[in-house]
Amino acid sequence: MSVIRIVPNLPATDPVTLARFYAEVFDLDVPMDMGWIAFLQNDQSHQIELHTASEGGSGTDIPVISIEVDDFAATLDRLNARQITPSYGPVDEPWGIRRFYFSDPEGNLVNVVTHIN
Fold this sequence. Notes:
The chain is α+β, with helices and mostly antiparallel strands. It has two helices and six strands. The chain starts with 14 loop residues before the first helix and ends with a strand. The model has no long low-confidence stretch (mean pLDDT 92).
């Protein structure tokens, strides 16, 4: 047996609006919208990864999702344009990533990361 895909589901009172938020901030497509659920994706190949944790690292809460980006500053700028301020960071962590947390419009805690070069 091989796992093909692992998909996080973010709770939302208005899934379509939340999907549009993520599409705009992270430059994603919404290939399917059924009203009660909306799918987000991009054209990149996908990696299967599942984390278990007792904390979010550096004493932080556990985020519901972590999103790795290739343009950290642009992502932060997009959130700032929406008047969304990180609740943690930006910070360089000792394990080799730069990251920040923010809460999406539904209150989900999101971890945005990039690798430190």
